[in-house]
Amino acid sequence: MSTASEYAGITGDEMRRRRQEKLFARINRTATYLNVVGFGWLVPLLKIAAGDHPRHQLRELRQQLLIPLVGIAAFLALWAGLAPQVHTSLGAIPGPAQVWEQAVNLYQDHKAERAKEAAFYARQDERNRELVAEGKADRVKWRNYTGKATYLDQILTSLKTVALGFIIATLVAVPVGIMCGLSRSVNGAVNPLIQIFKPVSPLAWLPIVTMTVSALYIDTSDAFPKSLVISAITVTLCSLWPTLINTTLGVVSVDKDLMNVSRVLRLPTWKTVTKLVLPSALPLIFTGLRLSLGVGWMVLIAAEMLAQNPGLGKFVWDEFQNGSSSSLARIIVAVLTIGIIGFLLDRLMYALQAAFTYSTNR
């Protein structure tokens, strides 16, 4: 906080200039966080409000906000104009208005299903209270609601599945990548396997994973049903490679002088890894994590279609099989949902990268 003595003996113009400089410094620090979450277009508005010359800031605002909005508007206009010209066995391709209508319908279906669930549990509670009051407590039963999964439930299932697969992939890829970066022998042994398995499609992995999980995962739990585990492991097998490769590259790129110092000081391996290797390699590790999460989210949809895991992939497949007049619009809703969630997941990983690495905060 500024004090009166700080501005003693200076003119009013100089005082205003210094205050403005401090304000701009705060805005520039805030800009880092706004850019991370995708609200960088607010920075020009803040600078204009702080008294900066509006011409340059309006140019920045146009570049960061207006041009992307024009691109989105042009896409929507082309979609609305061209979609009715394409006719399928289910009718014309739905335009933005029809897709929005189905998105609203899916949300209304979710609300109606939640109301049915609440009513079911209310009736069950009332029945059990009456049995207890009649002295028949031994006949009290508690049953779970078995209604259909709504669209929002399927989104949550997909997020849970990709999170499980991504966590497993990270726990495997980061340690193996560190070992590959520290040891040429380990790298030489693992690298051929990376080159062989990295291009394999999830459609090829899925039958192997399905048979393996069916043989080993016998005592299934409600929290992790077999279809979810199959989808998650398929995501793991397809998404761990970017993290593994980038972790290896990050460790190999650590300053050789730092590694020589650790040898001179005879630091234990775990201390060398935690104090020198990881801090230096974190930017590339996070780059790999972002790529792995994007790959995992793409792979998930195909895995859920075939494994019948009740997520977005199964939703798309069910609508395709349903063949109703609204199916195409609902599939497009799912496509847009997948894209938006993928973007948000990438922003989340970028925010974590900005929080934990030096290179994104400079």
UniProtKB/TrEMBL annotation:
Residue span(s) of domain ABC transmembrane type-1: 155-349
Transmembrane residue ranges: 65-82, 162-182, 202-218, 230-255, 276-307, 327-345
Topological relation to the membrane, as annotated: Multi-pass membrane protein
InterPro entries named among the record's database cross-references: MetI-like, MetI-like_sf
Keywords: Cell membrane, Membrane, Transmembrane, Transmembrane helix, Transport
Gene3D superfamilies per UniProt: MetI-like
Cross-referenced CDD domains: TM_PBP2
Primary location recorded for the protein, binned into one broad class: membrane
Source organism, top-level taxon: Bacteria
Subcellular compartments: Cell membrane
The family this protein is said to belong to: Belongs to the binding-protein-dependent transport system permease family.
PANTHER family tied to this protein: ALKANE SULFONATE ABC TRANSPORTER-RELATED, MEMBRANE SUBUNIT (PTHR30151), NITRATE IMPORT PERMEASE PROTEIN NRTB (PTHR30151:SF7)
Protein name according to UniProt: ABC transporter permease
Organism expressing this protein natively: Ferrovibrio xuzhouensis
